[in-house]
Protein 1
Amino acid sequence: MSLGEFELIARFFDRGPARDAILGVGDDCALLAPVQPHCVTAVSTDMLLEGRHFVATDDPETVGHRALAVNLSDLAAMGARPRAFTLALAVPQVDEAWVGGFCAGLFAIADRHGCELVGGDTTRGPATICITVFGEVPPEAALRRDAAQPDDDLWVSGTLGAAALAVHAHSEGRPRPPGDPARLRLERPEPRVALGLSLRHVARAAIDLSDGLIGDLGHILDRSRAGAEVDWSAVPVDPSLDGLPAPLRRRLALAGGDDYELLFSAAAENRSAIEAIGRRLGLPLTRIGRIVAGEGLRFHDARGRPLTVDAHGFNHFA
Ligand code: ADP
Ligand code: MG
């Protein structure tokens, strides 16, 4: 190691006195001021392993962006406002160019969302990035997975399938070139934080789409003990999937992960409020179906004819 652990922390991770926190990097613990009145703390952790979630040759700035983006996406899906995060980092050796690039990507998105690095841990080992984010939300406004109710509309933000297309192209040995829109969707997901905040008291249940619509909607249905009907023809498939064979297009849009859009349920009386939020944020919000009593997820086409969809959500242990 050219730089020791403490030099590494001082050089890259300690950015001076904490801004939002009472005490940040440098002591035994960070001290976070109590959250806004009537708010509770929303906490979430995500881990990225080299070889599994990124490879050594990935652009480190992209890795830094993604590492925090996927965590902020969990706060967004809860309707929580980002406040702070910790970073546990293992690297096999100190590559200053890599750490510098990683920090550039990490702090750019952190600063954009007002989310402050307040502590962490640094050690030598197989490259691993573990981030824990802290956010705040009034408890009654949290967008929980168990809150969907029969007759709720089902909505999804943005478009689906582009990130999965980039993964698919890579696995077929035809990686998309740098800067390609589908590849950017995979590498630079934009957590829908502003949308999550706008959906407080408007949506009921929400989840961020990390493992694909079928799998992630399944989590809402399990937790809410309900079923759903989805109109495949209404699903906002990303234009980069145009021209693909229909089964592949459907699989990428419904079972491909990594889009980090929000899927949410809301009472029908909130339709115009949700459309207004979409216009204000410049983000398409599309109604794709509804929650029903009972269980199971059924797809149909534009004319209401049942559609068999064989795709499954991504499961790390499958
Ligand atoms: P401790 O021995 O109490 O675990 P460390 O020596 O590991 O403390 O860390 C020293 C300080 O630097 C602590 O405040 C810790 O939160 C912070 N820190 C360590 N690694 C990181 C990191 N990767 N990012 C941000 N802060 C870090
Ligand atoms: Mg430590």
Protein 2
Amino acid sequence: MKDLFLIDENDRVDGVDKVTGKAKYFAEYQLPGLTYGVLVTSTITKGKITAIDSKAASNAPGVLAILSHLNKPSVPAYEQEGGAKLKIFYTDEIHFNGQPIALVVADTFERATYAATLVKVSYNEAIFNTNFEASVMDSQAKKLQGQPPYKRGIENAYKTADVQVEQVYTIPIETHNPMELHGIIADWKADDKLTVYAKTQGVKSTQNTLANTFKIPAENIQVNSEFVGGGFGMALRTWPLEIATVMASKQLKKPVKLVITRNQMFTMVGNRPAAYQKIGLGATKEGKITGISHTAFGQTSTYETFTEGVVGMTKFMYDSPNVNTNYYVVPLDMGVPIWMRGPGEATGAFALESAIDEMAYALNMDPLEFRVKNDPEKDLAQNKPFSSKNVKEAYALGAEKIGWTNRKQQPGSNGDGSWKIGYGVSVGVFNAGRGKASVKGVLNTDGRLLLQSAVSDIGPGTGTAMTLIASRLMGIRVEKITFELGDSSLPPAPSQGGSSTLSTVGSAVNDLCVALKKQITELAAKVNMEANAHFTEVLQKNNLPSIEITQQSQANPEAKNYAIYSFSIHFVQVKVHQLTGVVKVSKVVSVADSGKIISPKTARSQMVGGAVGGIGMALTEEAILDHRYGKYINNNFGDYHVPVHADVPEIETIFIDKPDPIINPMGAKGMGEIALIGFSAAVANAVFNATGKRVRSLPITPDKILEA
Ligand code: MOS
């Protein structure tokens, strides 16, 4: 059996565990005496709870506790000003439909589920607002400045340009919906000692949040999250439902597990906020951009303000002397949004990259040529050189691969009577960061290397990439290296988010290996062995069973003199059915300019996953509310459409694979975000090329193509 699963350097180190079911996700831990929580959620959108009748529920079989604001255990941080923005079970106030208002705990999941249906809640309903677009249009509606306005050169310079494009682009709410549902198991071992099994993108961040909330030392909290079934940003914070579970376990002195339902995934763990964006673009007749104006509105909640970098890319992606941006958020009576893959930039890129395409057609110019013509030499917003940027090479490689020469400039002129064919291109960009991380390494005389760091892996294959970095530097085969993660007691590392893990933790692994090698050389000299002697022999000669080093690593100070970004170019071919308006993405070529590629297989998977997410964003994904009730009406996989296999064509990925000289010793920049950013615009641009119909409102559903 084992032979079937021999791994080579290109495989995922945890692939076998994942496909055979050995990998354990948080909800699979069976603790002695485990109890089960089920949430009761608000059926109104705004107002106050006037009564909770939990008598029948309390008397139901197996029920151990019903927590609500009426009998809440004390949470130290909740008694302080500030702290958590939504203090769960703290007051009678309702901020959004589906807000958790009580937690029923029973000895089985089924009994808790049944009892939760018996809890009767009365409310005093208030007038609410969940309508984003109406609020953007309403000059009286509250709008908060989401980011300071930015201006370079002349404001609204596009208005005096030879050729002008001025359009509005909208995206709906999208929800993350990873395969794994959100939740936690909480288990208080003593009054000041807590263990949790969590779904989190950051075990240290969960540990710190729980320490601050319950006012116990962080080192008394053990957070386990070895495997995570997808996150996309939704598990970058500790949600109120997790605090509720920890409260329940504290009160009951028993472990409590809470796994929310798929429906609840739409309401209480964030989403990509809806956005309304206006772009003004001006160019000379020769196709040189003279001005870009970008005003964006995003959505937030009334109880907490969420902002993201929607207008970031507009400031530097093109060589324009004049740029001005503004970004506002509109508070609504809904759950607070959170980062979702390519946060901010994926939203902004849909607008900017659609407008760039529109301008190319207005100039009767190939959109690829227009982009190349306006490619900047440096980052004009930060006034810094790029650490590395190979975008022109990426344009050329992708164009060749997709067959860009088959594209026709005249929209609607390619294809037969039933299926029209179109080609589109778009750029994605995201900050390539590097934070501070520590890794511990233990090198053994048996030839094995153990690496440990408190990072999470939500799926990209962190353990695989880290193992490869160590394997190549140490000359140790991958199967002799183990990378342990997802455990808060390991050396600290940041949360997995913002495409920075490979850069951050990988650098620490790199530096650790350099330190280990140095120590081996010193140990070899001590016993008069040659510097290139194998480390196992060096350790044996020194009578050492193992050597152990913990290495911390952080960004090079020189990095702040550069604009450091990862870039992607997405090429898409679509077929659009003339009579039905159905869009099929028929070919995808995504090119990543993200420095040196460490792990080809997982890098490719990142790009493929981003393209699949991009197809969803472009064509199907949209969380819809009924504003009469403030409720989602498609909060399930039957009605909220994500791409299935039949929607996904052959996806080719190309990597420029040139090391960035600045970011880190590997020269590797992140790519999780750029895999998605820009993709939806490439589809919209291809649809225009196929049909002459410009759809500026995602998702691009058949009705929008057919409408006159
Ligand atoms: Mo992501 S939005 O960096 O988890």
